[in-house]
């Protein structure tokens, strides 16, 4: 028998429909704080212009909608105005998980790039719904590429929600850029480039099968005055591109410089005594091993820190010359008697293309960012910058003996010192004759002289 809806059921249904409408709509929330300025009026694209690619940008239901378009390079909707210091908030949603988007900050355009279409370049806050999950990371579009991959902050990888609107907060104050995704602190970059520029919304280039997919932007608002930085967790790694610089935040987190940029304070010869009288050069904030005969520790010899370390987070910039070989060793005790380089686990620094060592060892375990002669680094080519450019290495040794290598923010390998697997690797390597190799409770950090010109800077460490 038919029964009409009761008043209470109709009331509940109305409430449900209202809530659903609020959830699904692009309607922009009104800002109650008069320090905020809306960058999007909800009606049209006034104050914005489309550049670089041919993807369409539309206004639908109070959202800016970017339509993914085949056979076009990356497209950007950019502000006509440029901004210096700001706090920016917006919400973004992508259809599917097979592509990505991003928000350009303090960016610029080369009108001649992309065959006259224009090429946008500058720091971009990544929106990445793929399995990689690097949303909130910082990418330098069309220039230096990744500055802050989320391998550096893996706990933030779960912050982004696929096929939902995600709240993004970006603070660009002074030379610092910090990001949050749905309230989760995500990335922190200190960078001296670009103190002002436009803000842009990206529609990425796509394979043909994604043609017509959409990316939505709404509630786009900015503050440019009376900026108050949000507290950022001090256990999130900071990428600082300023040479030999420790920011206030890094100091508060416990980092210190191992090289002051001026002299050899804190370093000495691994052969004993003072800093080498030859073979090393300190100039313009850079410490370099000088080219000799390409032999191991035959000129100035290796140098080591005065201090010894147990568990630590150690970052270092390095630059190779063509065909060069060097390395960073740690847990160096000098107890072993060697004619060449001192003994310790090594982060390999090598020109893989031109140095013969890359073809020795087993399965590439002597290539760049490998645990030398033991574990091959991730072979993804993207972390590797060209010879002659600065790279950033990082070695993290946790108190539980887990060791992780990074290259330019990408995770390259991990292992556990003293584990059964580690000892099996040692037993099959050139280190098999050294008792308890790599298992010293503490040791020096070493920069290797392998007879090739290799430079280092921004050596900084945090004891864990």
Helix content: under 10%
Count every beta strand, where a strand is a DSSP E run of 2 or more residues. Answer: 29
> Mean pLDDT, nearest integer?
92
Number of helices: 3
Distance between the termini: 73 Å
**Biggest sheet record:** 9 strands, mixed
As residue ranges, the low-confidence spans are 1-24, 28-32
Cα gyration radius (Å): 26 Å
Considering the protein shown, what is the CATH homologous superfamily of the largest domain?
Exo-inulinase, domain 1
The CATH C-level name of the largest domain is: Mainly Beta
State the CATH architecture of the largest domain: Sandwich
Shape: elongated
Q: The CATH topology of the largest domain, please?
A: Jelly Rolls
Walk me through the topology.
Layout: H1 7-24, E1 37-38, E2 48-51, E3 56-60, E4 63-67, E5 75-79, E6 86-94, E7 101-110, E8 119-127, E9 138-141, E10 145-148, E11 166-173, E12 176-181, E13 184-190, E14 198-203, E15 214-223, E16 239-240, H2 248-253, E17 255-257, E18 267-269, E19 280-283, E20 286-289, E21 303-305, E22 312-320, E23 325-332, E24 346-350, E25 390-397, E26 402-407, E27 410-416, H3 420-427, E28 444-447, E29 454-463
Parallel strand pairs: 13-16
Antiparallel strand pairs: 1-15, 2-5, 3-4, 4-15, 5-14, 6-11, 6-15, 7-8, 7-14, 8-9, 9-10, 11-12, 12-13, 17-29, 18-21, 19-20, 20-29, 21-28, 22-25, 22-29, 23-24, 23-28, 25-26, 26-27
């Amino acid at each position: 028998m038919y029964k009409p809806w009761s008043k209470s059921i109709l009331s509940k249904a109305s409430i449900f429909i209202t809530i659903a409408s609020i959830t699904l709509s692009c309607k922009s929330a009104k800002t109650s704080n008069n320090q905020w300025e809306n960058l999007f009026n909800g009606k049209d694209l006034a104050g914005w212009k489309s550049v670089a690619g041919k993807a369409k940008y539309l206004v639908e239901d109070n959202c800016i909608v970017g339509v993914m378009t085949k056979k076009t390079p990356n497209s950007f909707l950019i502000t006509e105005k440029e901004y210096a210091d700001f706090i920016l908030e917006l919400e973004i949603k992508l259809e599917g998980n097979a592509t990505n988007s991003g928000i350009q900050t303090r960016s610029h355009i080369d009108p001649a790039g992309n065959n006259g279409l224009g090429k946008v370049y500058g720091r971009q806050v990544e929106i990445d719904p793929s399995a990689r999950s690097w949303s909130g990371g910082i990418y330098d579009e069309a220039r230096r590429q990744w500055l802050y991959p989320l391998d550096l902050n893996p706990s933030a990888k779960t912050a982004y929600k696929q096929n939902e609107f995600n709240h993004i907060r970006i603070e660009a104050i002074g030379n610092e850029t910090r990001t949050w995704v749905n309230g989760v602190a995500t990335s922190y970059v200190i960078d001296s480039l670009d103190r002002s520029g436009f803000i842009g919304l990206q529609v990425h280039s796509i394979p043909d099968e994604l043609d017509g997919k959409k990316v939505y932007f709404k509630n786009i608002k900015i503050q440019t005055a009376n900026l108050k930085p949000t507290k950022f967790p001090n256990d999130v790694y900071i990428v600082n591109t300023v040479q030999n610089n420790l920011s206030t935040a890094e100091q508060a987190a416990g980092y210190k410089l191992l090289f002051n940029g001026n002299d050899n304070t804190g370093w000495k010869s691994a052969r004993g005594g003072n800093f080498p009288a030859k073979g090393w050069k300190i100039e313009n904030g850079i410490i370099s091993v000088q080219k000799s005969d390409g032999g191991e520790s035959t000129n100035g010899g290796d140098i080591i820190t005065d201090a010894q370390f147990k568990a630590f987070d150690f970052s270092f910039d390095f630059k190779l010359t063509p065909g060069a070989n060097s390395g960073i060793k740690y847990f160096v005790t000098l107890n072993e008697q060697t004619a060449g380089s001192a003994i310790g686990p090594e982060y390999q620094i090598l020109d893989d293309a031109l140095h013969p060592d890359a073809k020795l060892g087993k399965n590439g375990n002597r290539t760049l960012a490998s645990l030398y002669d033991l574990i091959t680094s991730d072979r993804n080519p993207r972390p590797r910058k060209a010879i002659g450019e600065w790279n950033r290495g990082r070695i993290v040794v946790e108190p539980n003996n887990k060791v992780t290598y990074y290259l330019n923010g990408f995770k390259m390998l991990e292992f556990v010192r003293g584990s059964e697997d580690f000892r099996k690797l040692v037993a099959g390597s050139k280190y098999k004759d050294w008792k308890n190799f790599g298992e010293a409770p503490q040791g020096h950090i070493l920069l290797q002289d392998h007879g090739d010109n290799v430079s280092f800077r921004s050596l900084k460490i945090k004891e864990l």
